[in-house]
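Technical note accompanying the year-one report. For the benefit of new consortium partners, we illustrate the data format agreed upon in the data management plan: each record pairs a sequence with a structure-token string. No post-processing was applied to the example shown here.
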Amino acid sequence: MKQFQKEFNALLEYWPDEDREFRELRLKAFDQFKKIGFPTKKWEEWQFTDFSLIKNSDFHLSWDSDIPTIPKNIPGRIQDTYLILIVNGHYQPQLSDIPDEVSVVKRKEHFKKNPELYSIESSSNPFLSLNTSMMNSGLPIYIKENAIIKRPLQIIYLTTNLSAKLMNHPRFSCQIGENAEATIIEHYTGSTSSPYFTNAVSSINLEKNSRLNHIRIQEEDLNSNHTAFTSYTLDNQSQLEATYISSGSLLFRHNVKLILKNKGANATVNGLSLTKTNQHHDQHIIVDHASDSCQSDQLFKYILSDRSSGVFNGKVIVREKTKQTNANQSNKNLLLSPNALMNANPQLEIYADDVKCSHGSTTGQIDSEALFYLRSRGISQQRAMELIVSGFAKDIIDYIKNTDIKSYISEYVFNWLEGSMKNV
């Protein structure tokens, strides 16, 4: 905790001219972080994840001196996309390409107009408090009403060429205007020999009758730690399709809170997590049906090899007096090693009668009958196993509609499987 206090004090000195209200927010958030502390195994919602790697490491905030030479070929860049590029926590406007229908505003202005989006009053998540106190990167984005953004907007958060253990606390806010449609790729990638810590918060609001495809790709370096909190609020008749792909970081924890706030909101949230060696991926999803005639669908899959481990905790809440709720939740996990470990806990909290809800979870190894069938057709065992596992992952990838994004993720997943299956 002393190191975090030291870096927080340095941040206050680095930005001495911040508005009083914003400075007070930082101070209040850091006090709350110190009071809550890091999660322990005694906390029910965090019991399967050990955060000592973050707690005990000597991480430093990223300053101007930590901006490296920008590579000519941006890692992770997907073709035919608009680009927002952030390198080692520093926005690169000269290399970014933003359409006219998208406005990027200053944090100070966004905070003054939307103070509720920065509130931590009801949160017990220490990483949200830590981010609010130290947010040093990320951007508030507004997509204008009635805008149809034809090309995806890719936000690349690149960590590379570090000379010290760095941490960054990006804060993204995205407002999708009424009747607007967009695809946003939130992409975290890293390539460096030094350990680092990314603690990201994304707040996404969909206004009436808007549509958003949100693809979150986490392929950080394996010596990194990545914690994240993503919140969605959906207004009348808005539609969200979210897909999370995670394969990077030694430690990964993602909290998601989705509120179907007004009538007719619709959300599909899917995830594919790929782990190997000693990686640990932990995802907690809360879907809150707070209005009538709303639908939510979840499908989360994990593929775990070596001594890696995973956690899925999904909760669907149906509020009292809501009507015509439809909610489906499914979690499926494939263990490629007898040493891999999965903890799954799908949950339903229903306080209304007019509902159709389902949930379930399965965990197992490669189907021996399917493997025998492929082997009997002359396919090698290695190739047969690759086909079965890639077919398991395909369900998630097929939800992605954009062909360029799908091609990028398909190739990445194929390369991961090819490398991981050699030791199976």
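Partners are asked to follow this layout when depositing records. The two ends are 40 Å apart (CA to CA).
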